[in-house]
Design a protein that fits this description.
21 strands, six-stranded antiparallel beta sheet, rod-shaped, alpha+beta, single chain
């Protein structure tokens, strides 16, 4: 399922249950009021709490959805690229767009206001020229000069209005215009003046009849300027014979459209200046639509009422390209000239509505080739940026896919491992760190799979060894034989699950006992199998030899003769049979003895085994060695020896697992220490003697595990 919709809803907690309960109660109260018309007390509070509960639950679900969405590394990488790559690109694009918007608006305003200032200067020059012409002309010709001059000027200034005061005589142009005189009459007007709902460019030129000079306007008509203090009685200081010329150029739709042809729509927005003592609440009902402007400490509110007539109805230029957006910009509010001193103080801003392409056409002198070149250059740069961005996106997506694919494959691999399937392998491509990580995962699963197979094989072998151990325990004598004149006991402690040492007791009759001890070359399964073979061969040979002796009458227990079993012959047969049926490297040391309980006679053959010890009183005698180990050479010759056991004599047979264990200094336990332990415990039972010897060996090595199979047979003549 797509992770956007794979949202697992957790169990509701106590707070969540309360929130859901509030929503349910609010819904029930709403239904009761709507359907049944019941008035539920406290419904408003309940609804408010339900809104809070809905918000909290929505917030928790949103967090849960975001966590689920970002669970996959791929989604995290996509979000990372969005924040690292796309968000800065959007911010830069927005910054460039905002800068272009501001620059376009500011340039458009500059073009319009510069042209307006230039025309205001021309109008001021026209008024000044008329003053100088009137000063130079005789008084009788001045009226004719005024009409002819203004008629000629009206051709360049459509809708021009004028008021000329010459030596107390007033001339209004065009005749019958009804232009009221400014108050006070001597005030100097310049810039833009508002009469009713109309705006005018005003130019004022004056000259005393004697020496006054003309003052042309030197600053922008739309620039914010501080309010000039006018001295009371300034007008009265003017002489009545002063020459004054006031020119008014209407700023109507057609005139504003000619300021910058092709630029866009030009209009005026009027404001009221809110004084520092006026609060916002006091002027709230006296403002018109539009934003309130704050310039430093000054606050300008839109003027209520209808919009002024000084607004160009010229439509916006058609967009030259797709992103040729409309731009609206205006100047800072500037004070308008008051025609009468008691008129309300009004501020205005020049507002421009244009497009970047229109500004480009004006800046580059209406040159289509230049504009097209700029557009083509910008398109080329934008295309280059887009190609670089797409290339970066492709590279980023490729790297992201590599990362997420490797992580996803590793996740799937861990899921297979979690199910116990270690045969799953990750497809590896590349030579980066993630590819090496995938290879390491494959090597790890392969090693684990191999170890599991080895573990299974080990368990199988352990099971087989356990079976072999149980079988071998069945091969060892279950209990020592009971003889009237001999106490004998054998013990075998295996270093592993099964032992390669061997001991056996065969009670031939009430007076006859055959016993053996051996040490097979090798340990574990191979030694145990060879030990089982030796036991089987020995019992077969012993049964055959004992049968022949019984048939010859050798079993007569009442004749008083000493029983001497042919141990050498039996060991020779065992050697040959073992040699023929086993591999050359398999052999064993072997001690075989036949005991006559009636006479205490022990007949034995020692085939390369460690000589058993005969403890008589406090003396120690080592029994003979009568030949080579069995199974090594086919024609080895063996002899047999005899020894008569006295009452109290102790025979101790053992394997090298008793004498050869080493301590931490690599020193062997040795026969001397064995003899010392046996001599100190010679009067104790065979079981106690064996336990003391095993304990002494364990104390010597200092480790609980055995270094080799440890086997002992202890016999005492009673």
């Amino acid at each position: 399922m797509f992770p956007l919709f794979k949202v697992r809803i957790p169990r509701l907690g106590r707070l969540d249950s309360i929130l859901v309960l509030l929503l349910i109660l609010s819904a029930l109260a709403w239904l009761a009021e709507r359907l049944a018309g019941w008035s539920v007390p406290g419904r408003g509070v309940l609804q408010f709490l339900a809104y809070i509960a809905a918000f909290l639950l929505a917030f928790k679900l949103l967090r849960l959805w975001i966590r689920t969405l970002l669970w996959r590394v791929r989604n995290r990488m996509i979000l990372l690229f969005l924040f690292v790559g796309l968000v800065p690109l959007i911010l830069v694009t927005a910054l460039v767009g905002l800068a272009g918007y501001i620059l376009t608006g500011q340039v458009a305003v500059y073009i319009a206001t510069s042209e307006l200032d230039r025309r205001a200067g021309r109008l001021q020059g026209t008024a000044a020229a008329l003053v100088w012409s009137l000063r130079a002309a005789p008084a009788a010709r001045r009226a004719e000069l005024v009409n002819s001059y203004l008629t000629s000027a009206a051709e360049n200034w459509p809708g021009l209005q004028a008021r000329v005061l010459d030596s107390g005589r007033t001339t209004v142009f065009p005749p019958g215009a009804g232009l009221e005189p400014p108050y006070p009459p001597g005030r100097e007007l310049r810039g833009i003046v508002r009469l009713g709902r109309s705006f005018y460019l005003v130019a004022h030129a004056s000259s005393p009849s004697a020496t006054s000079a003309v003052k042309p306007a030197a600053e922008s008509v739309t620039a914010p300027r501080p309010k000039e203090a006018e001295k009371p009685g300034a007008a009265s200081a003017q002489k009545q014979d002063q020459l004054q010329v006031i020119l008014l150029q209407p700023l109507n739709d057609s005139y504003l459209a000619q300021l910058a042809p092709g630029l866009g729509r030009i209009s005026f927005v009027t404001y009221r200046h809110r004084g520092a003592a006026e609060s916002e609440s006091e002027t709230a009902g006296r403002t018109g639509p539009g934003p309130t402007l704050r310039v430093n400490e000054d606050v300008f509110t839109p003027e209520p009422g209808a919009s002024p007539e000084a607004a160009s109805r010229t439509p916006l230029p058609a967009p030259a390209y797709r992103f040729d957006y409309a731009v609206t910009w205006l100047t800072l509010p500037f004070p308008l000239e008051r025609w009468r001193e008691d008129d309300r103080e009004t501020y205005a801003s020049v507002q421009i509505q244009t497009r970047p392409s229109a500004v480009f056409r004006i800046l580059f002198g209406q040159s289509v080739e230049v504009v097209q070149g700029v557009v083509i250059f910008m398109i080329a740069v934008g295309t280059l940026f887009l190609v670089v961005e797409l290339l970066s996106l492709v590279i980023g997506v490729s790297i992201t896919r590599t990362l997420t694919r490797s992580v996803h494959q590793l996740y799937q691999g861990t899921q297979w491992v979690n199910k116990g399937d270690f045969s799953h392998r990750i497809e590896v491509s590349g030579n980066d760190q993630l590819a090496e990580l995938s290879r390491s995962f494959n090597v790890m699963t392969e090693s684990i799979e191999r170890l599991i197979e080895e573990s299974k094989e080990g368990e199988r072998l352990a099971s087989e060894l356990e079976i072999a151990r149980e079988v071998q325990e069945q091969l060892f004598p279950k209990a020592p034989p009971v003889m009237r004149g001999l106490e004998i006991l054998g013990v075998c402690n295996a270093a592993r699950m099964v032992s390669g040492d061997y001991f056996d007791f065969v009670k031939l009759s009430e007076q006859r006992l055959a016993w053996a001890i051996g040490d097979v070359a090798g340990k574990g399964i191979s030694g145990a199998l060879l030990m089982a073979s030796i036991q089987s061969m020995l019992r077969t040979q012993l049964s055959a030899a004992w049968g022949m002796s019984a048939a010859a009458g050798a079993e007569a227990d009442t004749d008083g003769a000493v029983w001497r079993f042919p141990t050498a012959s039996l060991v020779s047969q065992l050697n040959l049979q073992l040699y023929e049926n086993t591999s050359p490297e398999k052999y064993a040391t072997f001690f075989f003895g036949a005991y006559d309980d009636q006479h205490g006679m022990l007949t034995y053959t020692n085939a390369g085994h460690l000589p058993p010890l005969l403890i008589r009183e406090e003396k120690v005698q080592r029994l003979d060695v009568n030949g080579m180990v069995v199974g090594a050479f086919p024609h080895s010759r063996y002899e047999q020896s005899e020894i008569a056991l006295r009452r109290g004599d102790l025979v101790v047979a053992f394997t090298d697992g008793v004498t050869e264990p080493e301590n931490e200094f690599a020193e062997e336990f040795g026969e001397d220490r064995l003899i010392d332990v046996v001599l100190r415990n010679r009067r104790r039972s065979p079981r106690e003697i064996i336990d003391e010897v095993i304990g002494a060996v364990g104390h010597w090595t200092g480790r609980p595990e055995l270094q080799d199979d440890m086997t002992m047979v202890v016999a005492r003549r009673l």
